[in-house]
Structure formats: C-alpha cells, structure tokens
Design a protein that fits this description.
By secondary structure, the chain is an alpha+beta fold. It is built from 4 helices and 7 strands; from the N terminus they run βααβββαβαββ. Strands 1-2-3-4-5-7-6 form a 7-stranded mixed β-sheet, with helices on both faces. It starts with 9 loop residues before the first strand and ends in a 9-residue tail after the last strand. The chain binds coenzyme A.
Length: 163
C-alpha cells in the first residue's frame, strides 16, 4: 500500500527513552553503522528534537534534529526498511521543516554518506542542494573512513523553501 493513501492514520510521538527498545532494531536494520543506544540517550538528554512517525501504532520512521542559531541540523532520519521507497521520507521531512520554521530557522542542514545514493536522491528531490564535502566524516568498513556530502535547504516562514 502506498504511503499517500495512509496519511489519516499517521501520528507523531516525541522520542523518549521508553521508545528505544522499539526503535533500535529498526536503526540496526537500516544502517551499516547504526547509532547506539548511548547515542540516542545522549541526544534525548541533550534536548534534541526527536519525533517518531507511527501508523496504527506501528513505528514507520523517525528523525533527530538539533537546533542551532538560525539553522536546524538533521542528525538522523530513518524509515524502517520494509517501508522504504513508499514516500515516507518526504512526510517525515515535512514535519521537520514545519518545526524548523516554527523555531525561526532559515536553513536545514545535513550530512549524508557519499555512497548513500537513495538518501541523496530523496534530499535532492525534496529541494536540498549540495554544498560541499566533509572528508573522512564517517566510519566505514575495515577501519576506513567515508566522505560526507553536506546539503542544505533554505527555509522561509511563509513557505517551505526560500528559493
Ligand atoms: C533515506 C531514507 C530515509 C529515505 O526514506 P524513504 O521513505 O525510502 O524515501 P522515499 O520513499 O520518500 O523516497 C522516494 C522514493 O520512493 C518513491 N515513492 C515516493 N512516493 C511513493 C509512493 N507513494 N509509492 C511508491 N513509491 C513512492 C519515489 O519514486 C522514490 O523512489 P526512487 O528513489 O527509487 O526513485 C530511507 O531509505 C532510510 O531510512 N534509509 C536508511 C537510513 C539512511 O540512510 N538514512 C539517511 C541518513 S543521511
């Protein structure tokens, strides 16, 4: 079933420590180098903005973001593997953009592994543009490092994208 037909059943829930047992299996299935329980605990204790997206009480995806001065930095966005490529990332990003604008942010920033073609295509289709690279930003297989692509999305209070 397509995501767009299910929107009336979707709700958001603040990420807190009680959800980690349900979230971590998704995180571990979705990434070669997943966040640990400690990474999520630190993010929650730091007061970062974390939201879970649920459909009929099933956890579909989540994000964690950090507010800066006039920007929001997306730290983690994940859709459960068997729900990927159904349009859920856009729905999660819409929620994050709405919150970012409500916080007075003018920019949304993120890093993504250079090899993560699907995520880069999703961000690009959403309106993010490629700004630069961070060399060796991520851990990779066999003790190596992988570059990050840095992307941003300009925001404006009256709408989603500034130009
Ligand atoms: C990256 C990620 C968040 C994207 O989420 P997603 O839900 O798969 O992304 P979307 O479905 O919104 O992407 C759009 C794709 O779905 C398709 N799509 C969009 N709406 C659709 C719908 N209603 N029905 C069917 N397909 C749809 C689009 O054609 C597009 O497909 P394509 O990329 O093959 O051309 C997800 O793949 C993920 O969690 N990956 C692992 C973790 C990760 O890499 N996170 C990002 C770290 S920076």
């Amino acid at each position: 079933m397509k995501a767009a037909t299910q929107l009336t059943d979707v709700r958001y829930q603040a990420l807190d420590l009680d959800w980690l047992d349900r979230l971590l299996p998704i995180e571990q299935a979705a990434y070669s180098h997943p966040w640990t329980r400690g990474n999520f605990e630190d993010a929650i204790r730091a007061g970062y903005y974390g939201q879970l997206m649920l459909m009929n009480d099933q956890l579909i995806g989540y994000f964690v973001a950090m507010k800066g001065v006039d920007e929001v930095h997306l730290l983690n966005i994940t859709v459960a593997p068997h729900h990927q490529k159904q349009g859920w990332a856009r729905i999660l990003l819409d929620e994050l953009v709405a919150w970012s604008i409500s916080q007075g942010a003018h920019w949304l920033w993120l890093e993504v592994r250079q090899s993560n073609r699907h995520a880069i295509a999703v961000y690009h289709a959403y309106g993010f543009r490629r700004i630069g690279m961070r060399r060796g930003y991520y851990p990779a297989a066999m003790g190596k490092r992988e570059d990050a692509v840095v992307m941003n999305l300009p925001l404006e209070p009256s709408g989603r994208i500034r130009s």
